[in-house]
Design goal:
The protein has 191 residues and is of the alpha+beta class. The protein is built from five helices and ten strands; from the N terminus they run αααααββββββββββ. It has a six-stranded antiparallel beta sheet with strand order 1-2-3-10-5-8, with no helix packed on it. The chain has a four-stranded antiparallel beta sheet with strand order 4-9-6-7, with no helix packed on it. A hairpin with a 5-residue loop joins strand 1 (88-89) and strand 2 (95-103). The protein is globular. It starts with 8 loop residues before the first helix and ends in an 8-residue tail after the last strand.
């Protein structure tokens, strides 16, 4: 008889986060806007969530994205070496490498995001007070804020309030990538 597939971090983390918060599937669905059926399917490993669904879960639980996708480790675990963690890819969406998982001491997480030629990614507003830093490491990207696209080239950086709708796109015929750091607002309980 074949061995069952190993549980993935997303399904384990989601169930752990929900149970640690003392929430039923129905309560978690109300909190996150993700259906009870979908939550159950993700927790049982019967469905793989989209990136948009993961952001809904993260926002609903007021957690960083890496709380769902990374193995749970202590906040001060250091990682060294030239390569970022394995790529996370979602069908019909951006691909990214988590560089630094969320660290409550610093209140941030960092990703290396890749945009294919002509690709656009629409990001919903994050929780109030979340700030993003973008540092372009390859190619050219454009950032949409307040209805206006602004172009950034390799070596350019920008910081902006991410609690508003924003989008990224690659207007060129060559791949582009950028470091994306999310800084989460510190609540009085986290200080």
């Amino acid at each position: 008889m074949p061995n069952p597939a190993p549980a993935l971090p997303i399904q384990l983390n989601l169930k752990s986060i929900r149970t640690e918060a003392g929430l039923s599937l129905s309560q978690a669905a109300e909190l996150t806007g993700v259906s009870k059926a979908m939550l159950g399917q993700i927790e049982r490993g019967e469905s793989s969530p989209t990136l948009a669904t993961l952001w809904k879960l993260a926002k609903g639980f007021h957690l960083p994205l890496t709380a769902l996708i990374e193995d749970r480790v202590t906040p001060t675990t250091a990682r060294t070496g030239p390569r970022p963690r394995p790529e996370v890819r979602f069908e019909e969406s951006i691909s990214f490498h988590p560089i630094f998982a969320f660290d409550p001491i610093f209140g941030s997480e960092t990703f290396l995001i890749r945009l294919e030629p002509g690709q656009t990614h629409v990001s919903q507003p994050h929780d109030s007070g979340v700030v993003e830093d973008i540092f372009v490491t390859k190619g050219t990207i454009e950032l949409l804020l307040a209805g206006e696209w602004t172009r950034y080239h390799e070596g350019d950086a920008v910081r902006f309030a991410a609690d508003q709708p924003h989008s990224y796109r690659n207007p060129t015929r060559a791949p582009a990538q950028f470091h994306n750091t999310l800084h989460y607002a510190r609540t009085p309980a986290s200080l």
